[in-house]
Design goal:
There is one protein chain. Helix 2 packs antiparallel against helix 3. The longest helix has 70 residues. Helix content is 80%, strand content 0%. The protein starts with 6 loop residues before the first helix and ends with a helix. The chain has 119 residues and is mainly alpha-helical. The protein is built from 3 helices and no strands.
Length: 119
């Protein structure tokens, strides 16, 4: 039988090289995966920030449009004329005539008179 050279030492050295290479590859893969996860997290944060900024801009635009609409409506609203003074005596005479004609009952006349006089 022929003996191989190096025998046990050669096997141990080969095993060490293979194990070292496997460890290095595994470490590189872990670093790469961690970098990809960090990039994805950063991308999500950026998207959330941009969504918040867009929402704030839309709310500001809506508030500005509402304020402009209110200002335009106030500017276009006609000024209501002052209420004409009520001639109490004339109104009471009209109510009395309606009661005499039978259109108003005594209770309705009393209620209308109280309302007119502010009682």
């Amino acid at each position: 039988m022929r003996r191989r050279r190096g025998g046990l030492v050669r096997v141990a050295a080969t095993t060490a090289v293979v194990a070292g290479t496997a460890g290095a590859v595994h470490g590189h893969q872990q670093k790469k995966a961690a970098g990809q996860q960090q990039a994805a997290a950063d991308q999500q944060e950026l998207a959330a920030y941009q969504a918040q900024e867009q929402q704030a801009a839309m709310e500001a635009a809506a508030a500005q449009a509402a304020a402009a609409a209110v200002a335009q409506q106030q500017a276009a609203a006609p000024v209501a004329p002052a209420a004409a003074p009520v001639d109490t005596a004339a109104e009471l005479q009209k109510l009395a005539q309606l009661q005499q004609q039978g259109i108003l009952t005594p209770e309705e006349f009393a209620a209308a008179k109280a309302k007119l006089l502010g009682i």
